[in-house]
Amino acid sequence: MKKRLFSLGLAVAMAASLTACGGSNTAETTKAAETAAASKDAAGESSETEAAAGGVIKIGGIGPTTGGAAVYGLAVQHGAQLAVDEINAAGGINGCTVEFNFQDDEHDPEKSVSAYNTLKDWGMQALMGTVTSGPCIAVADKTAADNMFQITPSGSAVECAANPNVFRICFSDPDQGAASAKYIGENKLASKIAVIYDSSDIYSSGIYEKFAEEAAAQGLEIVAAEAFTADSNKDFSTQLQKAKDAGAELVFLPIYYTEASLILQQADKAGFETQFFGCDGMDGILQVENFDTSLAEGLMLLTPFAADATDDLTVNFVKSYKDAYNEVPVQFAADAYDAIYALKAAMEDANVTADMDASAICDALKASMLNIKLDGLTGEGMTWTEDGEPHKAPKAVKVVDGAYAAM
């Protein structure tokens, strides 16, 4: 099918020249304005904005804003909100105002399903979420049953996008594992590799399995593969000693930043000087409370976003994010920003209107996601296939002087 190139930079600058959402005529729009002016909702929604747009498209979001994975969820919430604000300032989607409602799931599958039900009761028409893989899989079963369109910014487990109504922005776990091994091999970073992974976590074990396959194809030797579980994720002295004794030149860590920060601290205390390489779950390590970021100097991670990139889109996004939240955005914020703009592009391709129900929107977006082409923060010319997977080039960053630098 013919692809539509959708530039985020152009989207921000678009004038609000689209027709009123749902095909409303002038009289209908005026009536909507009078009705909205007479009654504001409990959340204090601006009636003037809604009336001028001619309707509201409701997009929900789910992720952890409290608990151990809150760095991810807050980044996604903030990145998505920036995109929504830009889109509304530029005229909305097909002339409709976008309303965004983000619910906390504490990185818990049951609470994520509860958050989904809350958003359904609110009137959600499409879901941007969830953030982490376990909750995403639980919610994906519900969205499939409801025929609710779902785009996850960072749910990377294969099962997250197993249903035809679910698409993703990030790479899947197998793709991350293969890309990591290929990057290490092609750039000759090391030949003897140790792996420390969480065998109780589908994200970590999924990446490791594919990494091991591609490592063999790249001629890399895995000299130690040491597992831990959620019940033994505080003391890594045994795993580090085995990696050191095996002569590992690089330790691959397909794990989340919380455990990774402990590993770097314990490696330093043990005098184990080596290279460390992670995936997108590592992003956030520089924000760990009471963590000495100098221990992460030289740490490499596969991620599609580097905040120090000099292209206009990244520069503008980083500035806006800093102004709004007083911190440098991580990859998860960029994933969410791209997810909202992917929704915008697909909704415009499908001529989605505010009066369409969630199921009708889902059917339309499943087709339109195959038509669009997105120049985003996490990749240029991104496209999607029927299996919900994105196609874009992988990138890597390195921690230099306490900040991410593109490799």
SSE topology:
Blueprint: E1 4-7, H1 8-13, H2 26-38, H3 47-53, E2 56-63, H4 70-89, E3 97-104, H5 109-122, E4 126-129, H6 133-146, E5 150-152, E6 166-168, H7 173-186, E7 192-198, H8 202-217, E8 221-228, H9 237-245, E9 250-253, H10 257-269, E10 275-278, E11 300-302, H11 312-325, H12 331-349, H13 358-368, E12 372-376, E13 379-384, E14 390-391, E15 396-400, E16 403-406
Parallel strand pairs: 1-12, 2-3, 2-4, 4-5, 5-6, 7-8, 7-9, 9-10, 10-11
Antiparallel strand pairs: 11-15, 12-13, 13-14, 15-16
Helix pairs in contact: 2-3, 4-12, 5-6, 7-8, 12-13
Q: Characteristics of this structure?
A:
seven-stranded mixed β-sheet, 407 residues, single chain, disordered N terminus, 13 helices, alpha/beta, five-stranded parallel β-sheet, globular
Provide the residue-averaged pLDDT: 88
Q: Helix and strand succession?
A: EHHHEHEHEHEEHEHEHEHEEHHHEEEEE
Q: What structural class do helix, strand and pairing data support?
A: alpha/beta
Count of strand segments: 16
> Which strands sit side by side, in order, in the main sheet?
8-7-9-10-11-15-16
Major beta-sheet overview: 7 strands, mixed
Tally the helices.
13
Rounded to an integer in angstroms, the radius of gyration calculated over CA atoms is 22 Å
How far is the first residue's CA from the last residue's CA?
35 Å
Helical content band = 40-55%
- Measured by DSSP, the beta-strand proportion falls in 15-25%
Q: So what's the overall shape? A: globular
Unreliable runs: 1-20, 22-53
Pfam families: Peripla_BP_6 (PF13458)
Protein name: ABC transporter substrate-binding protein
Family: Belongs to the leucine-binding protein family.
Keywords: Amino-acid transport, Signal, Transport
